[in-house]
Specification:
Elements: H1 3-42, H2 47-88
Length: about 90
C-alpha cells in the first residue's frame, strides 16, 4: 500500500462523510436561518423556538434521506473491501 493509496482512501472517506451529513446540516442551516430571521423581525428570543423546528426538520431529513444514506455507506464499504486485495500487493 503506497501513500497515494492512503490519500485516495482518505479523500473518498471525507467525500462520503460530506455526502452523508449534508442533508441534516443543510436542513438545520436553512431552518436556523429562517427562525433567526423570524426572531429578529418579531423580537422573540425564545430558545425552544429555534431548537424544536431544527429538531423536527433534521429528523424529517434523516427519515427521507436515510435509505439513500444507508445505500451510499454500504456501496462505499463494499468498494473498500473489494480494494483490499489490490492494496495488499
Amino acid at each position: 500500500m503506497t501513500d497515494t493509496d492512503v490519500i485516495h482512501i482518505a479523500y473518498q472517506v471525507m467525500l462520503v462523510a460530506a455526502k452523508l451529513c449534508a442533508p441534516a446540516l443543510v436542513t438545520a442551516l436553512v431552518i436556523g436561518l429562517a427562525v433567526s430571521l423570524f426572531q429578529s423581525a418579531t423580537s422573540i428570543q425564545e430558545f425552544t423556538l429555534s431548537f424544536v423546528p431544527k429538531l423536527v426538520g433534521v429528523s424529517l431529513a434523516l427519515i427521507l434521506c436515510g435509505h439513500w444514506m444507508l445505500n451510499t455507506m454500504i456501496s462505499f464499504v463494499q468498494e473498500l473491501f473489494a480494494q483490499i486485495p489490490n492494496l495488499l500487493s
